[in-house]
Amino acid sequence: MKVIRVVAIALTVGIGAGSTAMADGFKDCTKLDKASWKPASEAEAKAKALGYEVRRSKIEGSCYEVYGVKEGKLYELFYSPEDLSLKHTIAK
Fold this sequence. Notes:
This is YpeB-like protein with putative protease inhibitory function. Keywords: Signal. Residues 1-23 form the signal peptide. By secondary structure, the chain is α+β, with helices and mostly antiparallel strands. It has a domain at 39-91. Helices cover 34% and strands 32% of the residues. It contains two helices and four strands, in the order H-H-E-E-E-E. A hairpin with a 2-residue loop joins strand 2 (63-70) and strand 3. The chain starts with a helix and ends with a strand. Residues 6-22 have low confidence and may be disordered.
């Protein structure tokens, strides 16, 4: 019975670590309270000004994650909702 418990714990830890490793999102942009964030539409406008065709946006952790296409390639752009600075970009 003890062996089964150890295996179950090992699998649970392994699965949890695997999920974290598979996530490719950037999640730490600000410590500012959400009530003080600038509108997400302003992050989308910044992406458009850089030449991206914005598909959608969402909140990821404490970042605005904007999905955009540029030159036929999909990108994820992560903006700080505090000052709308671009923190990270991932090409898909």
